[in-house]
Each structure stands twice: as C-alpha cells, then as structure tokens.
Amino acid sequence: SPVAENMHTVCKVLLMLVKYRADHIRTFTDLLASRLCQAAVFAPVAVTLHCEQILMDLAKLDGLRMLRIVTPFARGNDVSAKGGFHPNVSLLALHVVAETLKSIPSGQLLIELPGLVAVALPSLSSEVVDLRKAVIFVLVEAYMVVGDALYPLVKDLAPPQKKLLTIYIDRALSEKKSTL
Q1: Measured between alpha carbons, how far is 55 from 95 in angstroms, rounded to an integer?
Q2: Taking the chain, what is the end-to-end CA distance rounded to the nearest angstrom?
Q3: What is the dihedral of CA 110, 114, 115, 121, to 10 degrees?
Q4: Choice among 3-7, 83-87, 102-106 with the minimum mean pLDDT
Q5: Could you tell me the CA-to-CA distances from 45 to 26, 52, 76, 112, 145 in Å, in that order?
Q6: Looking at the predicted structure, is the pLDDT value of residue 81 above 50?
Q7: CA geometry: angle 103, 94, 135, nearest 5 deg
Q8: How far apart are CA 175 and CA 98, in angstroms?
Q9: pLDDT score of 13 more than 60
Q10: Is the pLDDT confidence value at 149 over 90?
C-alpha cells in the first residue's frame, strides 16, 4: 500500500539521520521513540523492523533515557486493542529493551530494574509465544548486567518459567565464556 511504502521510506531516512546526524535527533528522542513504538500497531513487519533498528541506534546515544522511554510500551499481558496495547508494540519494546540493557551500567540498571521487571513479567502469561520469549531474553540481558541481584525480582515466577530462565542464563554465560 502507498502508506506502507511511505512509512518504509521515512524509516529509512530516520535510520540514516540517527546513524549519521544523531546530534540533531537527540532533542526529539522522546517524541521519535514513542511514535516509532506506536507505529508498530499498524505498520508492516518491514517497517516495524526499521523502527526497532532506529530505536536500538537511539539507545546507543543514551541507553538509560531510551530504557525509560520504551519500557512503558512493553507492558501488559492484555495485548488486545481494547486493552490499549498490541503484541507488536510490546514485542518491539521488549526487543529494544533487551538490546538497551547492554549499554547501561549495573548501578543504574539496579535502580530501574524493579520497574522494568514489573512491566515485563505479565507478558510471560501472554498467548503470544514471541512475547514470552522476549521477556526471557530481557531477563537474561538484565542478569548479564546485574547478576544474582535479578533473582529477588523474579522469585515468584512459576517453576517452568524459572527453569527456562536459568537455562537461557546458563547458555548466555557459556557463550560469554567462550568469547573470552
């Protein structure tokens, strides 16, 4: 459709601006990030992937700021249109959060983590498999930054979810060791 083509073109331009003229975008980060997240409701997959890349590039400029902007879009397990959230928006936000966590120092993340976990955990009971996986990946990335300090925040997970989280954490730790 012409609208999708226009969105795709605009996303390509935004991606180039963020990569090569980030200093000009910094002022509008909040607005740009929230609009890109909202676009995931109706945008085709290709556009949503561009939105995700733009947000990840913006996160490199100021990870903590991006975490605070994007986290609210990751909330909830009621992802129906009635609930105000759409699985594509939550999924986009969770992907960006997982990548953003890599650039936030542990001390800062420890402060933000309780709110992030409270927002993300409800999606573990979503019917959308990709949302459940995205939450696990967010928790794994959080663990890679803060270590065992994550566990008190996820102590109420169901045993199968805890086991899955542990498996993925062990896998991430093994991968990290093999690259050292």
Answers
A1: 10
A2: 47
A3: 130
A4: 83-87
A5: 26, 10, 21, 30, 30
A6: no
A7: 105
A8: 17
A9: yes
A10: yes
Q: Which residue is listed with tokens 């001390």?
A: 107
Give yes or no for a contact between 29 and 67, defined as CB atoms under 8 angstroms apart: no
Tokens describing residue 130: 């990709």
Q: What is the DSSP letter of 43?
A: S
Mean pLDDT of 124-140: 94
In the block, residue with structure tokens 């963020």: 18
Q: The tokens of 133 are what?
A: 């996986």
Q: Where are the alpha helices (DSSP H) in the chain?
A: 2-20, 22-25, 29-39, 45-61, 63-70, 87-101, 106-120, 129-146, 159-179
Between CA 102 and CA 145 the distance in angstroms is 7
Amino acid code (one letter) for 56: M
pLDDT band of residue 76 (cuts 50, 70, 90) is: low
pLDDT reported for residue 6 = 84
Full DSSP string of 16-29: HHHHH-HHHHGGGH
Residue with tokens 């498996």: 167
pLDDT in tens, 154-175: 999 999 999 999 999 999 999 9
